[in-house]
Amino acid sequence: MSWLLVSPILIPLAAAAVSFALPERRMAQRTVAVGASALLLATSLLLLVEVATRGMVVMQAGDWPAPFGITLIADHLAAIMVVISAIMALATAVYALVDIDPAREGLGYHPLFLVLVTGINGAFLTGDLFNLYVWFEVLLISSFVLLTLGNRRAQLEGGLKYVAVNLVSSLFFLVSIGVTYGLTGTLNMADLAIALKDVPTGLVTILAMLFLVAFGIKAAIFPLFFWLPASYHTPPVAISAIFAGMLTKVGVYALIRAFTLLFTQDVPWTHDVLLWLAGATMLTGVLGAAAQNEFRKILSFHIISQIGYMIMGLALYTPLALAGAVFYLVHHIIVKANLFFVAGLAQRMGGSFELKKLGGLYRHSPLLSILFIIPAFSLAGFPPLSGFWAKLVVVLAGVEVGNWAIVAVALVVGLLTIYSMTKIWQAAFWSPTPEGVTLSGLPQKRLWVPVAMLAGLTVVIGLFSAPFMNLAEASAAELLNPAGYVEAVLGADAAAEYDVPIVLEETP
Amino acid sequence: MEVPVALTVGVLFGSGLYLVLQRNLLRLVFGLILMSGGVNLALFVAGRLTRGISPFVPEGAYAPPMGAANPLPQALILTAIVISFGLTVFALVLLLRTYERLGTVETNELPIRLRDPHPADVSPPASSVPHATPSTESSGGTSDPEVGS
Amino acid sequence: MNSLILRTTTRLLIGVLLLFSVFLLLRGHDLPGGGFIGGLVGAAAIALYAIAYGYEHAFALLRIRPRALIGVGLSLAVLAGILAAFAGEPMLTGLWWIREVGPWTVKLSTPLLFDVGVYLVVIGVVLRMLFSLEEH
């Protein structure tokens, strides 16, 4: 089984190697990218089935025993994330066939994209803190190059902000790793879960806050989000879409991992901080979006507000809330990338991303309108789409705990999301075409395939939510029981040493 | 010995932070270099400082000699140095490109320069026509995972 | 740069540097050295050549594009990880092939293959960076 576990890393990495080795063969590179993504989807689905039926899959790289070597592990959450990343990789690879111009392909778009996917999957599957840092850097460096590929002036300007802020975040991550190692002498996450119990709670909380800053920058939570709307609208849509879908979510994944496995010593304090941040993230994101008039910038700000919901699920720290956070992750990645793809299609027909210069798309292409409405309504949380269930579960979790303030924030933000989506609908689709703008013909069919596929997926998740919810609940159960994770990595003795029931206590 | 090293880390971080907060982006990159030096030193101290014995396993033995240095932080630092080397080179290339295309590396100036119309940026959308700059081969930092692992 | 001294010295040095880089690569498993440091020395040798004779000549000396070098190196490293599958071991497990060939003991292994991959990748990446900076 161990090969199934490493395949999400090995397949894109090997494909990237082949793609690097064929710098002049554009067709071969394209075939490799799409083929590898399809293969990746198949193996990651197998991995998810394996995890769902037989429990966590663990592998020790190089056969070095657990706390010494590098552990790879797939629990429910990691397996789900890998499947979603494979879906995104496939959708983006197909969309990029048309969207990425030959010049950018010549600069190495395809191998870089595959390295990005490698880094994302590696970050999901690793069970070692330093290895997580390495995967973060792998995905970061390829994202840097992808973001600035082509050297357009806006890209360079946005890229500088992105690069500077993310480099600082990496430094924070690394110094937190150093302090962790100094305190505990280990970096294996399962081993850390045990070792951190012997460290004074105050120090662990300081560590938790250091990691919160490091991962918070990557996840774009309040007040560390400003790099995202400054850069995400600059590259071509195929690149923005996978960034919007996956990159911040790797940060959210790392936060979920850290604040369920490692930093659970002082839940009332640390998770309260998270809850405040979640509320602020939701509000600032949605208010920022309301002030924007560019298709992709509105969507970028909505990434931030939606991340607030996921952090809210993590912060509430109940089985229902965590299940909601996981469900929200899945839903959001699909929907957000889809909206970026739609923005690309709208720009191809209307000639601009500026809402003022767009118009009349409904009459021009009813199909695109439907393909916009599905993810937009899903994002806003209309039934029966996936976003409805995601929001419902997170909000119910808030009600269950009785934290009415955060519930109110979540609902208000939901309303404001509808406002933003209506604004796009009104300006780009419903209103007449502005003077002097001629709409161009329908874009190539290959661009529609991933859009339709993702829109279909959000409908399916909405209509048949039970199996997806079951998976989310299973991940939540695992996340709330770190002893299981410890046992999978280090064996039953270590789990017995861990052996602490999860206490959900009220703040005194 | 830990205290002076810790102080050095503090000084490196402090001066790095000072430079990162400057408006000139070249200073920002220098600040990041200083800070990553500080971080590497911090990783080194995290493994405890010992004197003089390198962690090699002698011929015929199965473990390094008693009191040998901790090899793990050194491996971590080596990886971190490689990564920060790649990232720094990329940041410098990016800065160079920005200076060529926008004529400045001052954060205050950048948005103003960006608003100036520029023949290569205004007319065609990115998807149809590639950038019009002569240099198509770009982006040095095509770093790769193997170097780091 | 046009300097007779540099050119002459480079011609003398480049062979030694390249040989030394391979020496470092092969020595690496048990002693200080390895693919990374060997690759850096090798890349430095070619960079020196580029400075002395110009980048076109260095490019001609290399005969393969740096990006392709990255691809080949990465492929070798991945292969070294996958080979363990044929022995039924987890990924990256070291496999050794030790034979007496005449008076020498030949030791081949997957860690060596991995190191060769790293060696090529490092040369490719460093030269890629240098060449892209040189284009200005």
Helix residue percentage of chain A? over 70%
* Main β-sheet description of chain A: 2 strands, antiparallel
Oligomer state equals: heterotrimer
Element pattern of chain A in H and E: HHEEHHHHHHHHHHHHHHHHHHHH
Q: On the 0-100 scale, what is the average pLDDT of chain A?
A: 89
How confident is the prediction overall: mean pLDDT of chain B?
A: 76
The residue ranges of chain A in which pLDDT falls below 50 over 5 or more consecutive positions are: 502-508
Q: How many strands of chain A?
A: 2
End-to-end separation of chain A: 46 Å
Shape of chain A: globular
In total, the number of strands of chain B is 0
The helix tally of chain A amounts to: 22
| Assigned CATH class of the domain at 1-50 and 70-117 in chain B | Mainly Alpha
Give the distance, in angstroms, between the N- and C-terminal Cα atoms of chain B: 30 Å
From the alpha carbons, calculate the radius of gyration of chain A and give it in angstroms: 22 Å
Descriptive report:
The complex is a heterotrimer of chains A (508), B (149) and C (136). Chain A has 508 residues and is mainly α. Chain A has a domain at 266-479. Chain A contains 22 helices and two strands. Chain A has helices at residues 2-21, 26-54, 76-99, 102-106, 109-125, 129-148, 153-184, 189-195, 201-219, 227-231, 237-262, 267-290, 295-316, 319-350, 361-364, 366-380, 386-401, 404-430, 445-463, 465-479, 482-490, 492-498, and strands at residues 57-60, 71-74. Chain A has a two-stranded antiparallel ribbon with strand order 1-2. Chain B has 149 residues and is mostly helical. Chain B has a domain at 1-50 and 70-117: Helix Hairpins (Orthogonal Bundle). Chain B has six helices and no strands. Chain B has helices spanning 2-20, 25-46, 71-102, 109-115, 119-122, 145-148. The two termini of chain B are 30 Å apart. Mean pLDDT of chain B is 76; it is low at 122-149. Chain C is mainly alpha-helical and 136 residues long. Chain C is 68% helix and 9% strand. Chain C has helices at 4-27, 35-53, 55-62, 66-82, 110-134, and strands at 96-101, 104-109. Chain C has a two-stranded antiparallel ribbon. In chain C, a hairpin with a 2-residue loop joins strand 1 and strand 2 (104-109). In chain C, helix 2 crosses helix 3. The radius of gyration of chain C is 17 Å and the shape is globular. Chains A and B meet through helix 4, helix 5, helix 6 and helix 7 of A and helix 2, helix 3 and helix 4 of B.
